[in-house]
Design a protein that fits this description.
The protein is of the alpha/beta class and 365 residues long. 42% of the residues lie in helices and 16% in strands. It has 11 helices and 12 strands. Strand 3, helix 3 and strand 4 form a beta-alpha-beta unit. The radius of gyration is 20 Å and the shape is globular.
């Protein structure tokens, strides 16, 4: 066991640190940056993508947040309406055209019963189905019309970390591929997204190198009553994922919100004992989010922010630098939140790789 953890005390920390390599594998041989093209080795019937009306993503937990990130990319890059649904809540729904809908299951394990159930309901309605998964030969791959593998390597810790990053990177490539096929994305715009993706492993490594700073922040705030995570646009799924990670492994109360929603209710919960962790990257409308963070600070809450490296917010109690990698900048910010969750849980001596009451793969509905 100790040998398998490669010198790390927990699989989770090992897997957080494996992210640059996992991302390199995810991207390997799939990008033609000069041409602005992606080769995911997937095919669709002729004309299917051109006529596509909607992409519906179905997933659970962390994979659902990867889906929320991706839906924004599909709309922006592929010019197609995209929505995300919690798999256990998914129904095909009225007013939709099955043969012009692509239902995409995002599932690390490929075995999550809720997600398989959603795919079966989509198939019954006549929709085309697709899976984004880490697991070769998993049940989902046998049920869908096409699959893209995220190639993150085995993930042992119950908390999903490197697979979230690789899922988002794979879905970003899929969004570029669909956008190019539909003629919705110019080669020059595709090129710039692909360059951002190429920069992702290095940017994540830069964040990992800041781990001592994150550990210090975790030690300073670990005994807080609750933790609130906020963001805007691509920062929202990252905030939600940050909160899930912290609650899952530390057992502390943590909630994620769209930053603009703070003033519509959650602000009543804010006290000097509830730190706010914010995704303040330029690509997630950091400046507007900072205004909401200031409202929480006025009520005494400490504020920690993941900030684009060329931006500064002097009033933050803690500021983490995020390298500028465009569309995937908020994904890089997420690595700080993973490390924060890990160190809070570690300080408390929690069972990090196997949190109470949870299973890696949830095979019951
Ligand atoms: C994430 O840390 C959780 N362990 C959990 O939310 C997980 O992402 C969810 O159960 C979905 O699993 P899947 O990706 O294998 O379908």
């Amino acid at each position: 066991d100790a040998a398998e953890k490669g010198g790390y005390e927990h699989y989770m920390r090992k897997e957080i640190h494996e992210q640059p390599e996992a991302l390199r594998q995810t991207l390997a041989g799939r990008l033609d940056v000069d041409a602005g093209n992606v080769d995911l080795d997937v095919s669709f019937p002729p004309g299917f993508l051109a006529d596509l009306e909607e992409i519906r993503i179905v997933a659970c937990g962390t994979s659902y947040y990867a889906g929320r990130y991706a839906a924004q990319l599909f709309e922006e890059l592929a010019g197609v309406r995209a929505s995300v649904e919690i798999a256990s809540e998914y129904e095909f729904g009225a007013g939709r055209t099955p043969d012009r809908t692509l239902v995409v299951a995002v599932t690390q394990s490929g075995e999550t019963a809720d997600t398989l159930g959603a795919i079966r309901r989509a198939k019954d309605a006549g929709a085309r189905t697709f899976a984004v998964t880490n697991t070769l030969g998993s049940t989902v791959t046998r049920e869908v019309d096409g699959t893209a593998f995220i190639r993150a390597g085995p993930e042992i810790g119950v908390a999903a970390t490197k697979t979230f990053a690789s899922q988002v990177a794979t879905l970003a490539m899929l969004a570029v591929a669909v956008g190019r096929d539909r003629g919705a994305l110019a080669a020059s715009d595709a090129r710039s997204v692909l360059e951002d993706l190429q920069g992702l492993p290095g940017a994540v490594q830069q964040v990992l190198d800041e781990e001592p700073q994150v550990r210090e922040a975790a030690q300073a705030y670990q005994d807080s009553e609750a933790f609130f995570f906020v963001g805007r646009a691509l920062g929202v799924p990252v905030a939600l994922e940050g909160a899930l990670k912290l609650k899952e492994i530390s057992y502390d109360h943590a909630e994620g919100f769209a930053a603009g929603e703070l003033k519509h209710g959650p602000l009543a919960l804010v006290t000097p004992d509830t730190p706010v962790l914010a995704v303040l990257t330029d690509r997630s409308r950091g400046r507007e989010t900072m205004n909401n963070v200031t409202e929480a600070q006025t009520r005494g809450a400490p504020a920690l922010g993941c900030v684009s490296e060329d931006t500064e917010y002097d009033t933050l109690d803690v500021s983490f630098d995020v390298p500028d990698v465009g569309t995937v900048e908020p994904l890089v910010a997420n690595v700080y939140l993973q490390l924060f969750a890990y160190h809070v849980a570690n300080e408390k001596g929690r069972s990090i790789d196997k949190p109470r009451n949870l299973a890696k793969s949830v095979t019951v509905e």
